[in-house]
Amino acid sequence: MKETLQQGAGESTRFEALCEWASEQLPAKDGAAAPVFTRLGGDAGHRRYFRLNTEPPLLAVDAPVEGESATHFAHLARYLRQHNIGAPAVVAVDEGEGYLLLEDLGDGLLARLLNEETAPALYGEALMTLLAIQQCPDDPALLPRYDQSALRGELNVFDQWFATELLGVELSEADWHLLHGTYERLEALAVEQPQVLVHRDYHSRNLLVGDNGTVGVIDFQDAVWGPITYDLVSLLRDCYVRWPEEQVTNWALSYGNLLIDVGLLPENIDGETYLRWFDWMGLQRHIKVLGVFSRLHLRDGKSDYLSHLPLVIRYTLEVAERHAELKPFADWFRERVLPAAEAQPWYKDYRRAGDASQ
Asked: In 101, 150, 213, 344, which residue has its Cα 20 to 30 A from 165's Cα atom?
């Protein structure tokens, strides 16, 4: 066996155990060399990925049981595949150790393929895949409810990790009152939307484009049953890539028409209501992401995520300033939060974040 990256002692022990387990799952072939395990880049979770030089190619995944459930991931993968979604096939799973052996969907990350010329066709495929995801039937035993309580738990990550821990802003009683009122508005608009299967991290780094143009879906272990615009805004207002607002609006409205055509969106929902849902759902997500990226840096040592905070700030302020009910939050953010962010070493002018020249 071989691994291409150095590891700490604890990781090395798990790696060796993972290699042994994964190798045992492969068909025995006389004279065949032991498979080579090559470490791949990680994600925002605690999982580690290793590519095997098998035929067909496979991925071995170390998903520590303390923060992951390999079995839940496997159940979700099989559920998605049963409904013709391009999730990886599960070859084997070890629930006790948190090991998975999966189909390898390749290296065609949507994020690497996007440019002004390719975007219309690639987003068209990604949106059709999303439409198929949202037509999957509910399974309450498999999909937690993305309700007001769950939404609030995510928003509170902003308070603790971004405002307080990262920026050092001491939140006053007046601050808490304003935040509570803003959160209540966002939650109310989220739960009034039609509810569907939500991937919960549907963006350019979690979609893989195959040689035949089909879209594969990864990192779906946190899927829930929730608001219909959540994955759409995750894709179109991606925390890692930005598109012109007019283009985003056109994509969102075109997708809304598809939702009406397949019966997921009532015909009496007008464009203004739908775009309001889209905007406010995006604001909830981006407020959460400010906290999540801060936590990844402070708690998990994944500091690369800090470079994406200016773009998330841009989305946050642009949307909050667009709606009268959210303007108090935008004013508060500018007065109480933005000066502390501007003093951070990672900060760049949010007003140009995500522009092609940046």
From this structure: 150
pTM of the model as a whole:
0.93
Instruction: Give phi and psi for 6, each to the nearest 5.
Output: -75, 155
For 332-356, the pLDDT digits (tens) are: 999 999 999 999 999 999 999 999 7
Please give the structure tokens belonging to residue 18.
């993972």
Scan for tokens 């959210």, then name that residue. 326
* DSSP codes joined into one string, 243-279: --HHHHHHHHHHHHHHHHHTTSS-TT--HHHHHHHHH
Question: Which two structure tokens, joined as six digits, stand for 137?
Answer: 């039937």
Nearest to 93 by CA among 54, 49, 141, 61: 61
Alpha-carbon span 32 to 49, nearest angstrom: 23
Question: Which residues are registered as beta bridge partners of 197?
Answer: 225
Q: Which residues have CB under 8 Å from 340's CB, separation 6+? A: 167, 168, 169
- Interval 257-294: pLDDT, tens: 999 999 999 999 999 999 999 999 999 999 999 999 99
* CA atoms within 13 Å, Cβ hemisphere of 76: 22
